[in-house]
Amino acid sequence: MIQQFYTLLSAHQDKCTFNPLHLFHPFPALPTPPLFFELYLKAAQTKSKKTLAKPNIRNIVVVDGVRIPFLQSGTSGLLHRTNVPKDVVDYIIFGTVIQEVKTSNVAREAALGAGFSDKTPAHTVTMACISANQAMTTGVGLIASGQCDVVVAGGVELMSDVPIRHSRKMRKMMLDLNKAKTLGQRLSLLSKFRLNFLSPELPAVAEFSTSETMGHSADRLAAAFAVSRADQDEYALRSHSLAKKAQDEGLLSDIVPFKVPGKDTVTKDNGIRPSSLEQMAKLKPAFIKPYGTVTAANSSFLTDGASAMLIMAEEKALAMGYKPKAYLRDFVYVSQDPKDQLLLGPTYATPKVLEKAGLTLNDIDAFEFHEAFSGQILANFKAMDSDWFAQNYMGRKTKVGSPPLEKFNNWGGSLSLGHPFGATGCRLVMAAANRLRKEGGQYGLVAACAAGGQGHAMIVEAYPK
């Protein structure tokens, strides 16, 4: 993991219990800118809408963002590259989920290894699948408050080499042995050893509060919202097909090659594998057997990956000669019941961030949602499009509405591109920014669910060309 960040940062330098949800039935502003600026926007962008700039608040821009190819765990290694002088960066923040004990503050260790000044502070955040989102928004806060002008934010996850612990009994014995002062004390402790002490504790993608795996939760959520297995497979096939098309057309431009030490150079995501509905239908349920609907084909896979973004105050970026890609605008974090609403973060976060920005769903040109499971995405669609859910669970009078598919994850998503837990947030933001530039839109909406029943949403605004 550290090696991935060294290269990544170095390249940054030149520039079945009762579930109440089962009761559900299936659910089929700001002042006008000055005239000259308005005309400039009209000339520069396909669509002309109000900008989300706020009085007396610094504009914060994404200068660029990159990621190494996202790889299925156990298949290869990683790297990264962007451009900015070392001494310009004020702060470095990265997200990660499964931490290595020796490098628990991986951002600091990677920054030092990459050659950044030891005077540049760095810290690591963890917020499950939205860890990189938290890294970005922490950077936004530092810049908005005037504490910093330039922040590098990102995330990393190396699922191919996760820390595996001894059992609690074995750990206790080893610690006690370390404290023992005499041979007799050591022999007494060793006499209590049993073979089952050697059973390892493997990390699991499970909720601490419920002991339920996320896949199990996704299966129950899909059942609660009457999302069929066929619907889930069809959505997963869409994700892989769109990702393959984007890959073939060179649209995934945030990827930088990674030289695997002693091996090949990886240049593209290797989890994109369009199949057929017939082949997908043959797979057995992965979590709730034999009647579950979540399978390996309609779930995101364990992934190795890293991502990073160069975030600046707009005036600093322009003074340095950079051409930003997008503004980072309003964002929100939400949390709800981790048992029955674990994966509904986008449903709760989307209306809040839209209201905060003074926008409606129709104003959004590009949606980028994290795809943990097909069932999770489709359940969120149904929840977002239900007045009943809005009124009974969200305390809202009306639904926010479901994102139109023609604007949704058009270059693939986590189901096909992969999901390195700590790195996905930056991928989502850069996908939105790059899509807005390519498609001529102005507003993007990024949203994601996370373990613990939490979620995040952010508005990204295209930078005038």
Automatic annotation (TrEMBL):
<protein>
    <recommendedName>
        <fullName>Trifunctional enzyme subunit beta, mitochondrial</fullName>
        <ecNumber>2.3.1.155</ecNumber>
        <ecNumber>2.3.1.16</ecNumber>
    </recommendedName>
</protein>
<keyword id="KW-1000">Mitochondrion outer membrane</keyword>
<keyword id="KW-0472">Membrane</keyword>
<keyword id="KW-0496">Mitochondrion</keyword>
<dbReference type="Pfam" id="PF02803">
    <property type="entry name" value="Thiolase_C"/>
</dbReference>
<comment type="function">
    <text>Mitochondrial trifunctional enzyme catalyzes the last three of the four reactions of the mitochondrial beta-oxidation pathway. The mitochondrial beta-oxidation pathway is the major energy-producing process in tissues and is performed through four consecutive reactions breaking down fatty acids into acetyl-CoA. Among the enzymes involved in this pathway, the trifunctional enzyme exhibits specificity for long-chain fatty acids.</text>
</comment>
<dbReference type="GO" id="GO:0005741">
    <property type="term" value="C:mitochondrial outer membrane"/>
</dbReference>
<dbReference type="InterPro" id="IPR020613">
    <property type="entry name" value="Thiolase_CS"/>
</dbReference>
<dbReference type="InterPro" id="IPR020617">
    <property type="entry name" value="Thiolase_C"/>
</dbReference>
<dbReference type="InterPro" id="IPR020615">
    <property type="entry name" value="Thiolase_acyl_enz_int_AS"/>
</dbReference>
<keyword id="KW-0007">Acetylation</keyword>
<dbReference type="InterPro" id="IPR016039">
    <property type="entry name" value="Thiolase-like"/>
</dbReference>
<dbReference type="InterPro" id="IPR002155">
    <property type="entry name" value="Thiolase"/>
</dbReference>
<keyword id="KW-0999">Mitochondrion inner membrane</keyword>
<feature type="domain" description="Thiolase C-terminal">
    <location>
        <begin position="322"/>
        <end position="461"/>
    </location>
</feature>
<dbReference type="GO" id="GO:0016507">
    <property type="term" value="C:mitochondrial fatty acid beta-oxidation multienzyme complex"/>
</dbReference>
<keyword id="KW-0256">Endoplasmic reticulum</keyword>
<dbReference type="GO" id="GO:0050633">
    <property type="term" value="F:acetyl-CoA C-myristoyltransferase activity"/>
</dbReference>
<dbReference type="InterPro" id="IPR020610">
    <property type="entry name" value="Thiolase_AS"/>
</dbReference>
<keyword id="KW-0809">Transit peptide</keyword>
<dbReference type="GO" id="GO:0003988">
    <property type="term" value="F:acetyl-CoA C-acyltransferase activity"/>
</dbReference>
<dbReference type="GO" id="GO:0006635">
    <property type="term" value="P:fatty acid beta-oxidation"/>
</dbReference>
<keyword id="KW-0808">Transferase</keyword>
<keyword id="KW-0443">Lipid metabolism</keyword>
<keyword id="KW-0012">Acyltransferase</keyword>
<comment type="pathway">
    <text>Lipid metabolism; fatty acid beta-oxidation.</text>
</comment>
<dbReference type="GO" id="GO:0005783">
    <property type="term" value="C:endoplasmic reticulum"/>
</dbReference>
<dbReference type="GO" id="GO:0005743">
    <property type="term" value="C:mitochondrial inner membrane"/>
</dbReference>
<keyword id="KW-0276">Fatty acid metabolism</keyword>
<dbReference type="Pfam" id="PF00108">
    <property type="entry name" value="Thiolase_N"/>
</dbReference>
<comment type="similarity">
    <text>Belongs to the thiolase-like superfamily. Thiolase family.</text>
</comment>
<comment type="subunit">
    <text>Heterotetramer of 2 alpha/HADHA and 2 beta/HADHB subunits; forms the mitochondrial trifunctional enzyme. Also purified as higher order heterooligomers including a 4 alpha/HADHA and 4 beta/HADHB heterooligomer which physiological significance remains unclear. The mitochondrial trifunctional enzyme interacts with MTLN. Interacts with RSAD2/viperin.</text>
</comment>
<dbReference type="InterPro" id="IPR020616">
    <property type="entry name" value="Thiolase_N"/>
</dbReference>
<feature type="domain" description="Thiolase N-terminal">
    <location>
        <begin position="75"/>
        <end position="315"/>
    </location>
</feature>
